[in-house]
Design brief:
Largest sheet: 9 strands, mixed
Number of helices: 7
Low-confidence stretches: none
Shape: globular
Number of strands: 19
Number of domains: 2
CATH class of the largest domain: Alpha Beta
Length: 348
């Protein structure tokens, strides 16, 4: 399949620039590709489509204030996105500046704090920090790393709203946006409805926003992301499957982690990394349902949804969402794909 097969026209006014005034006050498009059904609903009605046999899986990664702004010695402006903190004084980062970046370049965050580029590591730069440590630097000077399609500077509200209420483990440079819809009251209601849930951790990297630049999608190389699955979650998954319940991934990051953990017909636990690329034709082994936001045209996440719901049906549900004026992307509305496509979805 080619990249243009995953393109669609989206009116700019449907790209959510702000979160809803109240967390969770979002529309929810409930679909079932096997029944070709589409129901316009609301996130508060999500419970009505769940069974006590189901297991919800959330990503508890926590977004760091990973965006920094600095200056060269010449005064030239520099923007950095910290990808991975290696130790208190070293990190891997993306760097945006008007001129070519060279080893030894110094980037001043303040008069006494600066970074020095010491190595090119694939598409990222390894930098050394002088005058501070990274945890302190990001806390004092870091900005919320809002996605590139949000056309504004980060605001105080984003510190809370571009973070899930259950965020626990620092390490992501982008939020697991499907989880942004859920409040503490939702987890109380899950318990009241006897809906089981658990968490995994996948630290989302900046590569999630990298465009596919190859014409044939099979030529695209995915970025690596680090994740962890506990023994407890593994046991819950196996018991859920045994009892005939569904494993419902809350977000594409959960789906990627769960599917990547399935190796040699069993679920691998502990710390892992993956560059799994899920496209139409992929055979799903763990996930039975998916709660997710609406994704960018030509993105790897849209390809993942197309693999799960079926290529043709995904086009239909996105057309429906546009017509019904759902809000798109990180701060937008969501869709619940009740069941994975069971029959083979041939692309013609």
């Amino acid at each position: 399949m080619e990249i243009d097969d995953f393109d669609y026209d989206l009116p700019a006014n449907l790209i959510a620039q702000q979160p809803p005034k109240v967390r969770g006050d979002s529309k929810l498009l409930i679909v079932n590709p096997n029944k070709s059904s589409k129901i316009d609903s609301h996130c508060k009605n999500f419970y009505d489509y769940l069974s006590p046999k189901d297991l919800l899986v959330f990503n508890d990664t926590k977004v760091i204030k990973a965006r920094l702004f600095g200056e060269k010695v010449t005064g030239g402006k520099v923007e950095l996105l910290i990808e991975n903190i290696i130790d208190p004084n070293h990190a891997l980062t993306m760097i945006k500046t008007s001129k070519k970046i060279h080893i030894g370049l110094k980037i001043f965050i303040s008069k006494s704090i600066f970074l020095e580029v010491i190595e090119l590591d694939k598409k990222l730069f390894r930098v050394k920090l002088f005058g501070s440590i990274f945890t302190r630097l990001l806390e004092e000077f870091g900005h919320v790393p809002l996605p590139p399609y949000i056309n504004r500077k980060d605001e105080a509200e984003d510190l809370e709203r571009y973070q899930t209420t259950f965020a626990k483990n620092f390490g992501a440079v982008a939020a697991p946006t499907a989880g942004l819809h859920f409040t503490e009251n939702d987890f109380i209601r899950f318990k009241q409805h006897k809906i089981s849930y658990n968490f995994l951790t996948l630290h989302i990297g900046s590569g999630t926003f990298q465009p596919v630049k190859t014409k044939n999608i099979s030529d695209h190389q995915m970025h690596f992301e680090y994740f962890n699955i506990s023994e407890q979650l593994k046991d819950q998954i196996l018991n859920t499957k045994k009892e005939g319940g569904r494993i419902i991934a809350i977000g594409t990051t959960c789906m990627r982690a769960l599917e990547a953990s399935f190796i040699d017909n069993e679920i691998k636990t502990g710390n892992q990394k993956t560059n799994i690329f899920i496209t139409p034709g992929y055979k799903f082994n763990i996930v039975d349902g998916l709660f997710t936001n609406f994704h960018l045209p030509k993105s790897t996440l849209l390809m993942l949804v197309s693999a799960f719901a079926g290529y043709e049906f995904t086009k239909e549900l996105y057309t429906h969402a546009i017509i019904k004026k759902y809000r798109f992307f990180s701060y937008g509305d969501a869709t619940f794909i009740e069941q994975k496509m069971l029959k083979e979805d041939l692309y013609k």
